[in-house]
Specification:
Elements (H helix, E strand, L loop, with lengths): L2 E7 L3 H12 L6 E7 L6 H6 L7 E4 L5 H11 L4 E4 L4 E3 L4 H12 L3 E9 L7 E5 L21 E3 H7 L10 H12 L4 E12 L8 H17 L8 H7 L7
Parallel strand pairs: 1-2, 1-4, 2-3, 6-9
Antiparallel strand pairs: 4-8, 5-9, 6-7, 6-8
């Protein structure tokens, strides 16, 4: 099974090499690695280019934000399965993608997901949050559940059939896409009970209280965009679920 991994980066020379090394160090033999850069000016481009042909596809040009760049990467992908590893993130272990592939093969599912660790930016061994996803239950979306987006792998045909990320959302396009795929269209999924990714703290939707409030509004809008009406408590339970993840 060929897996396409997409890294989106803009002016992140500090950690991009860690992300690249994490992908190149995976044991699964059939990985297409795509790096999409937003025309960085801090030396990021030079770091990426230093890996030469070990990176399958490298694009550096202006985009219209994170999700536009992700969509660009998906359109370039030729793998059977597509996943993301952002430039601040790392795979938890060298066999992370091997576990993803084994789960697809064993389950026959259209998507898979696993567990996520939030770690300190300056020390990725220091755990801040431990996000244990649990087995899939569609009804859990009503109670604020979602899979950790960096661990969500989807067959390329699903993107072709159900559409890419909705760029009208500034911080909740990942939630909208997973809600659309899993809850609305009920694609099949399988849970990997293992840590797949380390994510450095400081995600776009959580940097400030203002951003968190905006993200919460976008979460609610994601339901309405898909013609769905969640219970009133859904938008409040989603951020509250995070409290159980802190260590």
């Amino acid at each position: 099974m060929k897996v396409s991994i997409i890294t989106i980066v803009y002016n992140n020379r500090e950690t991009i090499a860690d992300a690249i090394e994490s992908v190149l160090g995976q044991t699964h033999p059939d990985i297409e690695y795509i790096v999409v850069d937003g025309r960085s000016t801090d030396g990021t481009v030079e770091v990426v280019k230093s890996y030469g042909g070990r990176i399958s596809t490298f694009v550096s040009e202006k985009d219209n934000g994170l999700y536009d760049a992700i969509n660009k990467g998906i359109k370039l992908a030729t793998g059977d399965v597509i996943g993301l590893l952002h430039s601040d993130d790392l795979f938890y272990a060298p066999d992370a993608i091997a576990q993803v592939v084994a789960t697809f093969a064993r389950s026959g599912a259209e998507s898979v997901y696993g567990d996520l660790l939030y770690v300190r930016k300056e020390n990725t061994e220091k755990i801040v949050r431990n996000w244990v996803s649990g087995e899939y239950n569609r009804a859990n979306f009503l109670y604020g559940w979602m899979p950790p987006h960096p661990t969500f792998y989807v067959k390329r045909e699903v993107y072709n059939n159900l559409g890419l990320y909705n760029t009208q959302f500034k911080s909740a396009a990942d939630y909208e896409l997973m809600l659309r795929y899993l809850y609305k269209y009920k694609i099949s999924t399988a849970y990997i009970p293992a840590k797949l990714v380390k994510m450095r703290v400081g995600g776009k939707s959580n940097v400030t209280l203002r951003n968190r409030i905006r993200a919460n509004k976008e979460d609610y809008q994601a339901w309405l965009t898909n013609g769905l009406q969640p219970p009133f408590y859904t938008r409040f339970l989603k951020p509250l679920r995070k409290l159980t993840q802190f260590i």
